[in-house]
Design a protein that fits this description.
With about 130 residues, the protein is mainly alpha-helical. The protein contains 9 helices and no strands.
Length: about 130
């Protein structure tokens, strides 16, 4: 599915997916965030994902944030991260190790973050350093 969505990119109309971003079930919203992450370089998908980073469910917000990095890049993610909850940011941090440029993204994320996020981020960076 992901490969097919990547191939057609922004040529596909993602309007039907937008309806499900407000679904009452978090699992549905989380799945939609993952699907929107397959729509590379699609401005409507990027804006929808940025809105989803504010979801009340931290797992939905974290999934949207990871997808936003793929769709719109580090800068847009960091912009959205400024208003994300600590719970969602903490969920995203561990996954940044698996993203190209993840260390730079994490370092940018820690600027201006809460004490809890900075503390956890420092631990994640130390763990990455130990693994190398």
């Amino acid at each position: 599915m992901e490969l097919a969505l990547e191939r057609i990119g922004s040529r596909v109309c993602i309007e039907p997916l937008h309806t499900f971003t407000r679904h009452p079930e978090a699992a549905v919203r989380k799945t939609v965030a993952g699907l929107l992450g397959c729509c590379r370089s699609d401005p409507p998908a990027a804006e929808q994902l940025a809105r989803m980073t504010q979801d009340a469910d931290s797992s939905v917000a974290a999934t949207a944030a990871r997808a936003l990095i793929d769709v719109a890049g580090q800068g847009r993610f960091l912009q959205a991260a400024e208003t994300m909850t600590d719970a969602a940011l903490l969920e995203v941090m561990g996954d940044l190790a698996y993203i190209a440029g993840g260390r730079a993204i994490l370092e940018g994320l820690l600027v201006g973050a809460s004490e809890a996020v900075r503390t956890h981020g420092a631990k994640v960076l130390a763990r990455w350093d130990d693994e190398r």
